[in-house]
Write a structure and sequence with these properties.
By secondary structure, the protein is α/β, with parallel strands linked by helices. The protein is 31% helix and 24% strand. The protein has a 6-stranded mixed beta sheet. The radius of gyration is 28 Å and the shape is globular. The mean pLDDT is 91.
């Protein structure tokens, strides 16, 4: 087993299974960039090893349709053309992505129903229904000569799911009891720090019903566009209280259309109104479903809070429900959006102060239940930062897994299982690949370092014109961006110019005409002066023109 993502981090989940000369890929997700990755749109796994061994890859199996599990597939499928297996909703969401990348026609998508098995090369894979914050989520059992490996990357055990589809406890227990038993369990670690059980999704439905009952003006609900069960409960509450529903946000509109077409969402046609027509309805008849639960700067809810949405802006008396938890790193953006909503007079209800969201991930007691159901010989925690993996490993020890049979993985580890032990063989090339616009992997550490310098201290451009003998004809002329405002810093710029002139005269006196030496001389003369003067380190870019 080789994790290419999803261990020691939240996101870009991807796992390779190697048996003999065949490879099976589980998931291929994205991770959203941290604040210091300036200009980066997405982070995807490094596919180098997969590309080098593409002739050995037999297929790709998907656990569910979240971005951190399917978002990198369009980039992977450009180089690896193999069948992709997943449940109906998972592949429905994937189709939209492949269509945007013009890859849909050439990709072989194979729908698998939960509870069924597929043969992919020599791999037999069982799709086992579990609960999560998106419908059609499955754990996978990959059968190997040493016994099945169960991969349960995202799950919880919801005893009262919205769609009535309870997790397949029987299949999990059967695998645990059947000889030779489960070889290894790879299990979700996201909520390992939370005691007890994760609340049922139905708990949110009763909270939303109560809010709808008491709201007197418009209701705006922001939630994850992929949380179809949450959306259904919002629709049900709107129907109960005789409100029309409008949608905004590209991913919200797309996902609702996909879910309705596939039968996962039930919305009476006469309930839906175009967002442009909401103003013609009384405020107490309107519910708006929107993206932006993470405070993304260009998302619909954020624009409403700022007052620059195309069709609807928040006003005094509106009820705004943020029905989602903060993805780590987004807390500041969400806080700013909530502050703006309160300033506009809205009644804002969010997770910190009420039960408008429950997690889709298992808490401690459910994680223990999974371990006790499948009774694995070996255990590898996944889907979490290092502290989550560490705590999950301790939890596994508590339920009786021997310490030497537990492995905390790092991205790129080649984890070898035998009948007697689990150990690291070696590491493969792995890591992060940055997607910036249409460029994949063309932005590396040096470019990011330059972007960081530009964002922190700005740039100084020094333009010099020389003749063919190296004599300075004009300049130096100094242009700055993001450093100082020249009209307010004329003395500083004048002194900097004279420093460069002196340095260049010294070069002229010593008959130095090599461009690289001249550029370094300009940088050194300015660096020292500017740092001593104002304690800043801007990027200095000398430009030499020869005439």
């Amino acid at each position: 087993m080789i994790p290419l993502g999803g261990v020691g981090e939240i996101g870009k989940n991807m796992m390779l299974v190697e048996v003999d000369d065949e490879i099976l890929i589980i998931d291929a997700g994205v991770m959203f960039p941290e604040d210091d990755l300036l200009g980066i749109d997405l982070v995807i796994p490094d596919f180098s090893y997969v590309k080098q061994n593409s002739h050995r890859v037999k297929g790709i199996v998907l656990t569910h349709g979240h971005e951190d599990h399917i978002g990198a597939l369009p980039y992977l499928l450009k180089d690896v053309n193999v069948p992709v297996y997943g449940t109906k909703l998972t592949l429905g969401l994937l189709e939209v992505k492949l269509s945007e990348h013009k890859l849909l026609k050439g990709t072989r998508l194979k729908v698998v129903n939960p509870g069924c098995s597929v043969q992919i090369g020599n791999f037999k894979v069982d799709f086992i229904r579990v609960n999560h914050s998106i419908a059609d989520t499955c754990a996978l059992a990959i059968h190997t000569p040493l016994g099945p490996i169960i991969y349960a990357s995202d799950f919880k055990f919801d005893q009262t799911p919205i769609d009535g589809e309870v997790a397949d406890f029987h299949k999990l227990a059967e695998l645990g009891d059947k000889s030779p038993g489960v070889l290894a369990l790879f299990s979700d670690s996201t909520n390992v720090e939370r005691e007890g059980f994760t609340l049922s999704e139905k708990f949110v439905g009763s909270t939303i019903d109560e809010i709808f009952r008491s709201a007197r003006e418009r209701i705006v609900v922001a939630t994850f566009a992929s949380n179809i069960h949450r959306i259904q409960q919002i629709i049900d509450a709107a129907f109960k209280y005789n409100r029309k529903v409008a949608f905004t946000g590209r991913s919200m509109i797309n996902n609702i259309e996909i879910a309705r077409n596939l039968g996962y969402l039930t919305i009476p046609e006469d309930m839906i109104v175009d967002i442009r027509n909401c103003s013609s309805l009384p405020d107490n008849r309107v519910v708006l479903l929107t993206t932006g639960s993470q405070g993304e700067p260009m998302a619909a809810l954020t624009r409403m809070a700022r007052g620059d949405h195309y069709h609807i802006n928040i006003r005094n008396g509106d009820t705004v429900i943020i029905s989602a938890s903060a993805i780590p790193g987004n807390e500041k953006f969400i806080g700013e959006t909530i502050n703006q909503l309160f300033k506009r007079g809205a009644n804002v209800i969010y997770e910190d102060i009420s039960g408008v969201h429950v997690s889709g991930h298992a808490s401690q007691e459910e994680l223990k239940l999974m371990l006790n159901l499948v009774k694995p010989k070996f255990f590898v925690p996944v889907h979490g930062e290092y502290r989550h993996l560490y705590h999950h490993a301790k939890l596994a020890e508590d339920v009786g897994i021997p310490k030497e049979n537990i492995y905390i993985a790092e991205v790129g580890d080649r984890i070898r299982f035998t009948e007697k032990e689990v150990k690291k063989d070696d590491s493969i090339q792995s890591g992060q690949v940055f997607v910036d616009g249409l460029g994949v992997g063309d932005v590396g550490n040096i470019v990011l370092r330059d972007r960081r310098v530009l964002s922190e201290d700005g740039i100084i451009i020094v333009v010099i014109t020389i003749d063919q003998q190296g004599k300075i004809l004009s300049g130096p002329d100094i242009v700055t961006r993001g450093f100082v405002y020249i009209r307010e810093s004329e003395e500083l710029i004048a002194e900097a110019t004279s420093r460069v002139e002196e340095a260049l005269k010294e070069c002229e006196k010593n008959n130095i005409t090599e461009w690289s030496v001249l550029k370094n001389t300009v940088r050194d003369s300015l660096n020292n002066y500017i740092y001593k003067k104002i304690k800043r380190n801007p990027m200095i870019l000398p430009i030499i023109m020869q005439v």
